[in-house]
Amino acid sequence: MLTEEPIRTRFAPSPTGMFHVGSARSALFNWALARQQDEGRFVLRIEDTDAARNKPEWTEGIIQALAWLGISASDPHFEGPYFQSDYAGKHRESAEQLYKQGRAYYCDCTREQVQARRDNPNLGYDGFCRDRGLEPGPGRALRFRVPEGGPTVVDDAIRGRVEFDHASIEDFVIARADGSPLFALANVADDIEMQITHVVRGEEHLSNTPKQQLLWEALGHTPPGWAHLPVIVNEKRQKLSKRRDKVALESYQQEGYLPEAMVNYLMLLGWAPGDDREIMPWAEMEPLFRVSDVNSSSAFFDEKKLRAFNGEYIRGLSVEEFVRRCRPWLDPEVAPWSEENYDEDIFRAVAPLAQSRVAVLGEIVLNVDFLFLDQPVFDEASWTKAMKPGVGAEMLSATLKRFADPELAWEAEELKSALEEVGQARGLKLGKAQAPVRVAVTGRTVGLPLFESLEVLGRDRTRHRIDAALARLNA
Fold first, then answer.
1. How far is CA 235 from CA 92, 239, 303, 309, in A?
2. Scanning 102, 190, 438, 450, which has the fewest C-beta atoms within 10 Å of its C-beta?
3. What is the pTM of this model?
4. 380-474 has which CATH code?
């Protein structure tokens, strides 16, 4: 699909309030293709002609989502954003050109009239006004005159040769009675104006392609290279739906997915680099990407796999970078602790421990909150499991006494040995011996390594929490 002429791809979303992961995949494929050449350009065009779906904050959301993925106006391959509404005059000119050439005609038929003339209303428009010679006027829409006989052949880089019989394509409306163009014409006119060479988009647009190709040709231009990406499905092999599935890119951002992990995963929805590797940074994927290598079969959006990808990328960060990336979730403005209680030096001390355990950055709060709260927040299921009669209170009492020994060095290894001794004296292995202490100190049965946590928390705070847990048990 590479050509000698400069590649110009386009991404043309409608502002709808959320950025679909399928749209993100399409944008990335277009971005990768455009960047195959120094002169290549990725054109962002906002389809904003539907006033009900056009809000400035939604447009800004699209721009921010693209920037999060690494598709930014600061890159020389980026062009735009353009707004379809700014090209309304060109759309009308194109409609007028098609009318004057005899490639379009005016029609005053209502839907009811068309249905009354047809035995099967599903057959669509019957061409009644083709030869009536109507001129523009109230209630008269402009229809494109589909050629008789023969098919329109779409050469798709992913699906190969796809034929559409003209007998199955009705003379479709390209402009309303008030002169405003419909999507098919506006879309083609914009692509021609912006010199788009390649249209890479979702499979659902394939059915529109023969009409658009006919318009390209009727307006005197060579159609772009077409490529229709495989549909993205959920675990039940149903097309991803915003009503049923988690599809908003913003949701994944808020949970703490890294953009580089998301980019890596989305690029593999229908394409593979040709070897067994899956974890691969953008800089390595981009030069390998070819639209012709995209598979036409549906692509499964596996959130569990995405989560695993994200965990790999988190573990690949430097500790300093991990600390920086976690800050939005640790900010006292949104976190459950006060500004006075938060200490980044303390977080930095446990960051390597947390980094190996979280799959998304949003999980960091539940892993470290015990360090910055006056008292831990108890998970009641954990409390019930750990504080069993005859074990919980006895272990806490004995541990409290052992930890009070001033000769005990407050270091992870020494604390572990001390607790092992307490447990062994009661016939308990370390796993069961430490459970009551972990819950008393952190509020949960799972989390960061216990003894490193105790070392950071300090002797006084640790003993205070064990004492408080004992009081709760006795109460």
1. 45, 10, 9, 18
2. 102
3. 0.92
4. 1.10.10.350
| Residue type for position 119 | D
Cα dist from 390 to 337, 393, 436, 465, 475, whole Å: 34, 7, 11, 20, 15
Q: What CATH architecture does domain 317-372 belong to?
A: Orthogonal Bundle (1.10)
Interhelix angle 344-355/450-457, rounded to 10 degrees, is 180
CA separation, residue 177 to residues 85, 109, 174, 361 (Å): 18, 11, 10, 53
Tokens linked to 122:
């599903």
For residues 416 and 378, the answer to whether their CB atoms sit within 8 Å is no
Distance CA(309)–CA(321), nearest Å, equals 18
Name residues whose C-beta falls within 8 Å of residue 158's C-beta, 6 or more positions apart in sequence: 227, 228, 229, 230, 291, 292, 294, 295, 296
Pairing state between β 41-46 and 78-83: parallel
Residue 475's pLDDT band (cuts 50, 70, 90): confident
Closest among 132, 127, 131, 166 to 147, alpha carbons compared: 166
Residue 208, classed as helix, strand or coil, is helix
Task: Indicate the pLDDT class of residue 18, thresholds 50, 70 and 90.
Answer: confident
Interior CA angle at 407 toward 459 and 341, to 5°?
10
Residues 6+ apart with CB under 8 A from 398: 422, 425, 426
Residue 102 dihedral angles phi and psi, to the nearest 5°: 80, 10
Domain regions of the chain by residue span: 317-372, 380-474
**What is residue 100's three-state secondary structure?**
helix
How far apart are the C-alpha atoms of 30 and 286, rounded to whole Å? 11
On the 0-12 / 13-18 / 19+ scale of CB atoms within 10 A, 210 is buried
| Burial class of residue 453, CB neighbours in 10 A (0-12, 13-18, 19+) | buried
**Which helix (H) or strand (E) element contains residue 201?**
strand 198-202
Active site residues: 242
Closest CA to 252 of 21, 63, 66: 21
Tell me the pLDDT tens digit for each residue of 430-446.
999 999 999 999 999 99
Check whether 357 has a pLDDT greater than 90: yes
Cis link prior to 81 (omega < 30° from 0)?
A: yes
Q: Which two tokens stand for residue 412?
A: 């992870």
The token pair at 11 is: 């991404």
Could you check whether 317-372 and 380-474 share the same CATH topology? no
Can you tell me the mean pLDDT for 403-410? 96
> Would you state the pLDDT for residue 15?
85
User: Residue 210 corresponds to which amino acid?
Assistant: P
